[in-house]
Structures are given as structure tokens and as C-alpha cells.
Amino acid sequence: MIALTNATIIDGTGRDPISGISILIEENRIRAIGKTIKIPAGTRTIDLQGATLLPGLIDTHVHFLMEYPNMAQYLITPPSLRLFQAIPRMRATLDAGVTTVRDAGGTPAGVKMAVQQGIIEGPRMLISVSIISQTGGHGDGYYPCGCDLGLFGLQLSDVPRAVADGEDEVRKVTRELLRAGADWIKLATTGGVLSTADAPTSAQLTIDEIKTAVYEAAAQGKRCMAHAQGADGIMNAIKAGVASIEHGIYLTDEAIELMLKKSVYLVPTLVAPLDVIDFSHEHPEIVPPMIAAKALQVVEAHQASYRRAIEAGVKIAMGTDSGVGRHGGNGRELSLMVKHGMTPMQSIQASTLHAARLLHLDDQLGTLEEGKRADMIVLSGNPLDDIDLFGNPDNVRLVIKDGRICKNLLEA
């Protein structure tokens, strides 16, 4: 057993912080929490000395099998090496205080299983395996040179090629992804910044194609997420029944109204285009000019759409699109969420309780409550006073996932 004493907790519910709290962890659960709890003899006890204790963060949009849009590097990297390269990225994400992720494409089930079996360290994972895309769409790995590089330049036998046209092909590839272990089905319903053959505003996949994937996912108790940046593709995805809109760069009033009506989440990934811009400035010889230009073009609309969604009351879950940029910097997203309209407490809830609700894990995760899984982190300061604390992993002093200490700088 582990006891954390003298903590100031932000429990994820939205309540004000409470000081002088102790938490008792037994196996992988929170067994007791309060100002006075009984700590059995022999329990490992860590005095937090008033430091801030929060639920483990949840990032609902990452890509562990990539880091930065460096296709030239991908061309000379064997797929097996790409799997090993994911290991430090997962470790960095955990060290940043993220104890649960939804991988939004590229990561096979074996990586998730390796974490579950304790072979490698990483956050708890839900995976989409690949991205369903139409021919020439955002997830099509065919490049102007005439090469089909697959998703993110990755060709693995357990990451099915997911380019599909027409309802029959979408049905088949959805079933193949479910067979491959997908927890979520991801669809590219618009173009994107990193794809070479389309614009972010272009609509992709028909409503009927999207509906087919939603039906097949639901038949196995799964749901769909949509890479959706342009207005028409966003509306198609919402109408067809997806659970979350990823990016949502060009949201219209009509889309926001329908998201509210259908309880569809927005995962804004505000940091993603900024990462592309930074990388293109550092490596202009690597990032194609068309991609750099698209990243610059979307930033203002992206931030404006996010602000309007907040003001309207759209449900928002934190997601970074890490992999477009570096892994381990996930906490930067909270700073951007606050900069563009949220309160610090709202950004914390978007990264804990509300993210857990999107993933249907809120009965286990997202808040510090007795009986829930013991996922929690300790920060070196109060994020309600300085939300930028999350952006530096060094400020994350303790990480506990499933009742096990994964990072401990308090006793170093």
C-alpha cells in the first residue's frame, strides 16, 4: 500500500482545491481519501508537503509511431525500428503526467499489449490502429513521387491499409481494423495540413460511407472519431454519428448547434499546427512548402473556432496530436486552451474528467475518488495560478498509474 499525505488536491470534479488531504492506495485503487484516514502499519508513506495532487492527465489524440512530419527519415527507417522508437515517446508521455491516451492512428495492438503486460512503460492506451480515408484523402499514403508509403510512411502487417471508396470497402476495412484490435475507428472526413493531395477544407468520405463505419463500430460496442477540419466534412461526420470531432478548424454555427444537440465532443489539438510551423522553420529543407503554408493558414481560424465552441458550451476533451510534434510536451495544450478561452480549472477538467467521459472511462478514471483507479500526478506548484506548469515535465514530480509509482522526483 501507498499513502500520500499532506496534499492539496484538485480532484477533477471542478471543486476548489482542498488542502491537508491524504490518500491511501491499495493495489490499483484509491481505498480512502480525506483529511483523516487510517494508514495501516507498514504502508509506504510520502509526505507531499502541500504540493498539488491531481488525477492523471488523459490525452485523447496522440500518434506514438511518428514524431514530426519527416517523410525523408521515414523512408530509411525499417518498420521494426519504428516500433522501438515509440518506446521512449511513451515513456516521455508518462513522465509528462499523461497516464491514459487514445492513439489516433499508426500504432498496432501489440504496442498496447506490451504496455498492458509490463514489457514497456507507457500510458494506458486505447487505439484506432489506422485511419480510414478515401483515395487521395488525408490518410492515403500515396505521394506525388509515385510511392505508396502507407500511413505515416509505415507498413506493418497488423496496421491494415485503410484507403476505402464506397460503402462496401468502408465496411470491409472497418471490420479489418476491429479485427486488428481497434478500440476506436478513426475516419478522415476532410483533408488536412500534413497531406499533400488535398486542402483542410475539402470534404472526404460521403455521409453514407461514414454511417457505414459508425454502424460497424457500434455493432462491436465501439465508436468513431473524425479527423475533421473543413466545415462540410465536419457536418457530414456529426450527421453520420461520430463521437468526436478532431481539430474542428472551420466550425460553423450550424455545426456547433448540432454538436450540442448530439453531445459530440471537440478535441481541438491547438498545439498541432504550431508544432508544424516550428518544425518547418527549423527544417525548411524537410517540410514541403505546401504543408508549411497550410499550417500557417489554419491557425487563426482554428483558435477562433475553439473559442466559439467554448462559449457555446460544446463538450471539449484535451488532445495534442503529439507525433505531429514532440512527445512529452502534452501539457502545452492546457496553456493554449487557457490562452484561447478556458479557465485553468476548465482546462484541467478537459484533461481529466471530460476526457474520461469521452472515452467512457469515467467510472474508473478522471477524478480522485474512492474506488477509482489510482492514476494521479503531483505538480511542483498550483496550476490554477500558473497553468504553464503542465508544459514542463520537470514540474511533474510524481506519477502514479494503476497504483504503481512510475516517476518519483520527490524522493530523488
UniProtKB/TrEMBL annotation:
<dbReference type="GO" id="GO:0016810">
    <property type="term" value="F:hydrolase activity, acting on carbon-nitrogen (but not peptide) bonds"/>
</dbReference>
<dbReference type="InterPro" id="IPR051781">
    <property type="entry name" value="Metallo-dep_Hydrolase"/>
</dbReference>
<dbReference type="InterPro" id="IPR032466">
    <property type="entry name" value="Metal_Hydrolase"/>
</dbReference>
<keyword id="KW-0378">Hydrolase</keyword>
<feature type="domain" description="Amidohydrolase-related">
    <location>
        <begin position="52"/>
        <end position="405"/>
    </location>
</feature>
<dbReference type="InterPro" id="IPR057744">
    <property type="entry name" value="OTAase-like"/>
</dbReference>
<dbReference type="InterPro" id="IPR011059">
    <property type="entry name" value="Metal-dep_hydrolase_composite"/>
</dbReference>
<protein>
    <submittedName>
        <fullName>Imidazolonepropionase-like amidohydrolase</fullName>
    </submittedName>
</protein>
<dbReference type="InterPro" id="IPR006680">
    <property type="entry name" value="Amidohydro-rel"/>
</dbReference>
<dbReference type="Pfam" id="PF01979">
    <property type="entry name" value="Amidohydro_1"/>
</dbReference>
